[in-house]
Amino acid sequence: MRFLLRFPLLLTWLVMGAALSPVASAAEVTLQAVLSPAVTALLKRAPVPAHLGLLVRDLDTGKVLEAARPDELFVPASTMKLVSMAARLTQTGPQSRYRVDVLAPAQEVSRHAKRISRLTLHGLGDPSLSISGPYSLAALAQQLTKSGIEEIGELRVSPSIDSATWPALPLGTPLVALRLQEYPGWNDSPDDYAARVTGAFAGQLRAVGIRVGAAASGLGRLVGEQSVQQFGRVTAGYAPAPAPIAATPEVSLASVQSPPLTALIRRTLKPSDNVWADQIAAQLGQVPGQASSEPLTHAGMVAGLRRFLMKVGVEPAPLTLSDASGLSQANRLTPRTLVTVLERMYDLPITNLKTPLTPAQAFAQRKNLFIEALPRGSTGIASAAARAEGGTLAERFIGSGLDVRAKTGTLPGASSLAGYVRAKSGHVLAFAIMVDQAPGNTLDLRAYQDRLLKVIAQSH
């Protein structure tokens, strides 16, 4: 039988870095297919000619139950999010939060000045900030007015993410240091997006009675909707530029915190939100010992993904990692990569509980936060709650009786499904079904994958 971990949450996170070490099972290579008769028969009836890979592992016994091309490379599509979101969850823990600060020149703050020459918004790119609400620009403005500030000369966004290092996202949305839920950012440049953010913040400041720019007694001059790059900071709508930022220490005047990371990941995986996935994964570029002032880069994010894969027992050398969302056709993963990640996230259940649970108990009681962030099959769409819980699997597996929690992935010519299913034996199986190089309608591939998973669950 597989070992069962019974660590409380705190202890689990203290040892997570050490526990995520390579395991022998992740290194095995299947040289020939290991397939049951029922699965073999169904594979012969694939709806279209395509490149298909399959791996199924019993998480109770550790045994490989089904395998076909488990070590070949496939386009993962959105099953890439299994890797990136698992990496983020294990990086900082489920209760970690993003924070947005309003920074001001320390010298002016020390004098308790009512007039501040500039404010800088600093965040790490999470996509859950809004214009109004608890985690919002409005909440920041309310804090500033309570501190006695009456006038602001200039507004900026700190370049905590080096947007220029990220390849253009297929959706035409830039990766940015500060993202608002209300502004999707289609076809915006990073500078234009920063102008939208500072413009929205100026509106919230004025709403609480704080004068901004041209309205602030000569502290700044309004220059329209343009955004200008000055001294490494994005200046949106205001001039002239103050002294170089590096020579002017800043302190926080106001701050707000996001919902817990586990809630953000759930909001990302259930509907398979590509923008949220890429924004959240940017923080993988932070490494221990790196100066917090250094902007996050695409190369740093990819390096963070590779570090995570090595910790869970995957050799990342043959893989291709291009983004965190799976939108890029350049990504390449193997079925074994996905199953290994799923296996480790099951073996080390991340929960909010202080009482210990075995992996099987956490799964059965729906307490494993990573697994519960995945779409759940057959919830239906009769209510908003059912749609939210089911996500991209809400209308799949209806009437099957299967307990499926899995991530979907779809791109032209590619369709994947990877996650967990309870088999007829009662055991929990981790599976990955990956298809690419397929002509025609991917809806046919989805229906075929559903039939294949039903046969797998019934065969074991």
List the keywords.
disordered N terminus, 15 helices, 6-stranded mixed β-sheet, 460 residues, single chain, alpha+beta, Beta-lactamase
Name the strands of the widest sheet in spatial order.
Answer: 9-10-7-5-3-11
CATH architecture of the largest domain: 3-Layer(aba) Sandwich
Strand percent estimate: 15-25%
Radius of gyration: 24 Å
Q: Residue share in helices?
A: 25-40%
Number of strands: 14
**CATH topology name of the largest domain:** Beta-lactamase
Low-pLDDT residue intervals, each spanning 5 or more residues: 1-27, 215-246
CATH superfamily of the largest domain: DD-peptidase/beta-lactamase superfamily
Mind telling me the CATH class of the largest domain?
Answer: Alpha Beta
Mean pLDDT: 86
Number of domain units: 2
Major sheet details: 6 strands, mixed
In words, what does this structure look like?
It is a single chain. This protein is an alpha+beta fold and 460 residues long. It folds into 2 domains: 9-95 and 297-459, DD-peptidase/beta-lactamase superfamily (Beta-lactamase, 3-Layer(aba) Sandwich); 99-257. Helix content is 32%, strand content 18%. It is built from 15 helices and 14 strands. The protein has helices at residues 9-19, 24-27, 37-43, 80-92, 106-110, 137-146, 190-207, 261-269, 274-281, 298-312, 335-347, 359-364, 369-372, 384-390, 442-459; strands spanning 51-58, 64-68, 99-105, 115-116, 119-122, 151-152, 155-157, 211-212, 221-230, 233-239, 250-257, 404-411, 414-422, 428-436. The strands form 3 sheets. It has a 6-stranded mixed sheet with strand order 9-10-7-5-3-11. The chain has a 5-stranded antiparallel sheet with strand order 2-1-14-13-12, with helices on both faces. It has a 3-stranded parallel sheet with strand order 4-6-8, covered by helices on one side. Helix 6 (137-146) crosses helix 7. Mean pLDDT is 86; it is low at 1-27 and 215-246.
